[in-house]
Amino acid sequence: MTTITIPEGMPQYGDVPRFDVEKVRADFPILGREVNGHPMVYLDSGNTSQKPRQVIDAMREHFEHHNANVARSVHQVGTEATEAYEGARAKVARFVNAASPEEIVFVKNATEAINLVAYAISNSPAASRLALGPGDEIVISEMEHHSNIVPWQLLCERTGATLRWFKVTDAGRLDLEDLDELVNERTKLVSYALVSNVLGTVNPTSAITARAHEVGALVLLDASQGVPHIPVDVADLGADFLAFTGHKMCGPTGIGVLWGRYELLEQMPPVLGGGSMIETVTMERSTFAAPPARFEAGTPPIAEAVGLGAAVDYLTGIGMEAIRWHEKELAAYALDALGTVPGLRIFGPTTPVGRGGTISFGLDGVHPHDVGQILDSVGVEVRVGHHCARPLCVRYGVPAMTRASFYLYTTTDEVDALVRGLEQVRKVFG
Amino acid sequence: MTTITIPEGMPQYGDVPRFDVEKVRADFPILGREVNGHPMVYLDSGNTSQKPRQVIDAMREHFEHHNANVARSVHQVGTEATEAYEGARAKVARFVNAASPEEIVFVKNATEAINLVAYAISNSPAASRLALGPGDEIVISEMEHHSNIVPWQLLCERTGATLRWFKVTDAGRLDLEDLDELVNERTKLVSYALVSNVLGTVNPTSAITARAHEVGALVLLDASQGVPHIPVDVADLGADFLAFTGHKMCGPTGIGVLWGRYELLEQMPPVLGGGSMIETVTMERSTFAAPPARFEAGTPPIAEAVGLGAAVDYLTGIGMEAIRWHEKELAAYALDALGTVPGLRIFGPTTPVGRGGTISFGLDGVHPHDVGQILDSVGVEVRVGHHCARPLCVRYGVPAMTRASFYLYTTTDEVDALVRGLEQVRKVFG
Amino acid sequence: MEFEQLYQEIILDHYKHPHGRGLREPVTGSSVGEAHHVNPTCGDEVTIRVAADGDVLADVSYDGMGCSISQASASVLHELLRGQHAGQAFKIMDGFVELMGGRGQVTPDEELLGDGIAFAGVARYPARVKCALLPWMAFKDAAVRAGVAGSSPSAAASEVQGS
Amino acid sequence: MEFEQLYQEIILDHYKHPHGRGLREPVTGSSVGEAHHVNPTCGDEVTIRVAADGDVLADVSYDGMGCSISQASASVLHELLRGQHAGQAFKIMDGFVELMGGRGQVTPDEELLGDGIAFAGVARYPARVKCALLPWMAFKDAAVRAGVAGSSPSAAASEVQGS
Ligand SMILES: Cc1ncc(COP(=O)(O)O)c(C=O)c1O
Ligand SMILES: Cc1ncc(COP(=O)(O)O)c(C=O)c1O
């Protein structure tokens, strides 16, 4: 009998997480459906993820047994709803390793989370450390989702500050060459994607946060494509704010999350005014509750928080390390497989290093709309267009791209179906 | 044989809508539950309503079969989700008789709807008809929910405008005596509740909208307690904006509605920036989509819209006239029954005229918290506190009130249970 | 296969071998109007140039880039409208717009729409209807700019945004 | 009946017949601190006045309005803390705070808490815990203002907002 010894430094067997994709798929009712007479191959998880039975059931259970408004009732059902809602906050806090549940603000989506910070800044009095004015700068990047571009453009319009941005290299990485010039004494905030929704790139954080903090700027990470796919630990990341969204991480629509360091949240003035965010109200003036309540005006997404809590439990049960590993395997497989398709060009990193399971590409001479349509006709669901990242398309000189994005329930068979579908596309448009 | 002729002017038999409350109750799974060993008597619908099976099922069905992101996909599942979402918009538009679905903006709750208008105003350039500045006035009332007070206080802070308000009479009606002075040439917006969440008062509209429009002011109706309970027709009301919220009208949490006259929505600048609300984006600047998309940044509450659409179908199936009638009957019954409780004082209209099925009261010598707690111990779920309307409590000289609020599934037996519960309260604290 | 409904031979043919593509200089004396339309969600672009000789559309030339549906639609438009009287051209346009708005329920009039009937399948794909309509909406604007009357109000007119 | 868990005879008794209610003028020479706390969600109010004679809480007087739980809690607080050494007073406070934070899982120490053990049932009602703690948080502030040392950090301290 021979024993194979794996050299040190190579991944050991023990490093490969247990992951049974078929078992995972059985949790997602929609994966059994057909599209145009073919089994659905859902490769659009970057757009929104599918929901496991556990999440759907948690929401139904809530509506059927514990539905009431929160934080306002002394009655039993209201207490149950409040505990469910606050329990979800605690789960989300643990999931990203926040210092306390009070650092988690529930909003409607990642877009609102980012806008919340932008409006808190423009609502800040001039004396505040958050205040912004002419001469001040905000830095974003060329690979941002519109939701991390437009709020800052509007903020600059409101305050007279200047918007600047990191460029993107041909290989699909943030160009950090000018870091020290771009992030300088005038910079008040740096906001960029932890993971690109188009290129799949996982962006570096320590060099940028270090430079930002050196010059006294705050850092917001748009982790909409990060938290669902890789382990995220806010204590490790060293950022000041993190935005993400429920529907991309097996949770329902209608809920997003802003995490912020508590001492910053405390300094932020309210943005939306209304019920539940107040301390006391007179007709003349009001005082406001401490965070997170200060930023949760009106009835919050209660059932959605319950759903998101269930999603977090589900992802934790499977293990974020295992999910990352599974998607890395898929990305490697897909990059290889797509490499065999003639005339296919990948935008972004072409090796499975520093990237997640989202791959955008072009097919010579065929418009992405046509690619998407033919793929749909054989049941393969991909996204086509500018992916809410038009400046990035402009950067690569194309009006649109085709994107396949994977998640924990994606299989190599589905990647094969994509490749077969692309053959079909080439036949029709050849 | 004698024929009874009902005198003209009295309600005729034909005027009494068909309404079978037991049949309605069978649609609401939660109504079968117990609280503290007693059948639950849910009298807190003003806080949030319960959900019928039809709504819960529609959401589950969506997640299990049609879940995808909207407005961004050419694929089949995305098309189904988009049609479901836009279909819900059309249903809501018909429900309040909007001129077109494009007048319906989906937001996260009524609070966001009101804040959206407030921020669109402060984001408007000085030349705009919506612009606001020092010397301009906004008029609200003393019976508003905090969600219709605080956004205007914050807006006045941002713009230097002045906040004024209608007083409330002892009988719980808006005091319109000073209407012509209060709403004057300086007034830019009048915003008040169509139905009070505390007193149950249904407020008049024609005199106020007429005066407002005479002086060139806009009118926003906070219909959060109106749309769920009485037929609402925006063409009839003559207002400019209407805000309401899904969770109080048998729909899910996480969704609210702003209706606005299209020509006004068109003049409003964006508030939240991000995906889906743009026309085109460059790093330097962006242009924006037409309403309603302009005001729906990011992934909208898709499953929630599906749920709200199902709620609207459900309410329409039963008939809003029938629901109004049922609640009026209940209010009459409850006002009589509560009148028999010694030491009980009703805040607001004491006759079932110009009021809905929401009744707030005080019990001599017993704090509302204690009232609520004893009632809860016998399964009766009421709300106690300031009901997010602290200035109204101050107006009546009390720190808090107890509120029973009815809906289509409430029965006279439940009113009896409330009255029996109050006897218990008096025994414990007598 | 499903996609054959959408990608009729005719459409692919017009896409791969567009008829009369390219913006042409009008003969002197004719009244000229041009419009450039973009579909902001996918970046498809079409420019239509109308050269009118009194009531007759002496030339309808075009250029553009984008998906097969939008580009084939421009080619078909050129075929159908060039040389028509304005009244007939707008009748054809209305027929095409109606077909596109019909969600696959409208039976196309082959006499009127010629190769345009190949787009009947597109009407079943809401996301693609805008692609098919793009050149037609540009034509409408161009015709107005060329001073050609007879444009009837059309429900879909505001669907696609010009630039 | 469930509510009996919450509304122990003892609590109702203290509510209906509060012990030593009313703010008293301190004897001259003692060091005085006062704090007024409000529960913003229900409007309950309590004022606590601590008069310290060196290390001894010579008097702990109070006034307030609100629900039975908050007012009975003030009465019990007065009973338990008046005349105590500061160290013992804070030990009692910590015991009470721990009981309230225990969600009904903490067995109260009757020796330490006296009538305070009647509040054990309240801990099962999260919405009412704030009511029971209101006078204790006011006491904590008042003691600090009276210059009484020995306050230990308490988890619930930030739960109720002062004014
Ligand atoms: C009259 C009134 N306005 C506004 C609101 C706020 O609604 P939401 O909490 O759903 O934003 C409510 C309900 O809480 C209400 O009763
Ligand atoms: C990187 C990134 N940021 C922000 C968003 C916006 O998320 P949401 O639409 O849920 O607000 C998305 C997804 O659309 C995204 O991929």
From TrEMBL, chains A, B:
Cofactor: pyridoxal 5'-phosphate
Aminotransferase class V domain residues: 41-418
Any one GO molecular-function label of the UniProt entry: cysteine desulfurase activity
Pfam name, any one: Aminotran_5
UniProt entry keywords in alphabetical sequence: Pyridoxal phosphate, Transferase
Documented EC number(s): 2.8.1.7
Domain of life (superkingdom): Bacteria
Catalysed reaction, written as an equation: (sulfur carrier)-H + L-cysteine = (sulfur carrier)-SH + L-alanine
CDD domains on file: SufS_like (cd06453)
Entry keyword Lipoprotein: no
Keyword field contains Transferase: yes
UniProt cross-references to Gene3D superfamilies, sorted A to Z: Aspartate Aminotransferase, domain 1 (3.90.1150.10), Type I PLP-dependent aspartate aminotransferase-like (Major domain) (3.40.640.10)
Residue ranges of coiled coil: none
Family per similarity comment: Belongs to the class-V pyridoxal-phosphate-dependent aminotransferase family. Csd subfamily.
Protein name listed in UniProt: cysteine desulfurase
Protein's organism: Phytohabitans maris
From TrEMBL, chains C, D:
UniProt-listed InterPro entries: NIF_FeS_clus_asmbl_NifU_N
Entry superkingdom: Bacteria
Annotated NIF system FeS cluster assembly NifU N-terminal domain residues: 7-131
Coiled coil: none
Record-linked Gene3D superfamilies: 3.90.1010.10
NCBIfam families linked to this entry: SUF_scaf_2 (TIGR01994)
Protein's name according to its UniProt entry: SUF system NifU family Fe-S cluster assembly protein
UniProt source species: Phytohabitans maris
High-level lineage: Bacteria, Bacillati, Actinomycetota, Actinomycetes, Micromonosporales
